[in-house]
Amino acid sequence: MGDSDLTPVLALASLTDKCAALFVAYAAARFAALAARALARFATRAAFRAGDIFFFAGAFAAAFCALWTASHRFFVAATIAARPAALSLRLALGAASSLAGAGASDSPRTFAHLRC
Prior knowledge:
Radius of gyration: 45 Å
Oligomer: single chain
Order of helices and strands: HHH
Shape: rod-shaped
């Protein structure tokens, strides 16, 4: 049976059958259009979500790096400021040496020129 065999049948089809076939074709086309639109919306939203995730991850990484740098600078500045004070206390060059007397013979400044 070829297409030529169905031609007389289609010619004799009633108007109701033709309308039903037209309705089915319209419904199929409408469904395909809505499915394509839904897929496009889904893909667009997924792409924007991925972009937002990438953006927020980048922003989080930038904020983390900024906070890390700031805390590191503070730690280094505190270390630089504390080192002279620690050496002064270690060598008793602060107020503690004035209690023993500035002219005392056990002052570390007296022995600074001597080598062991």
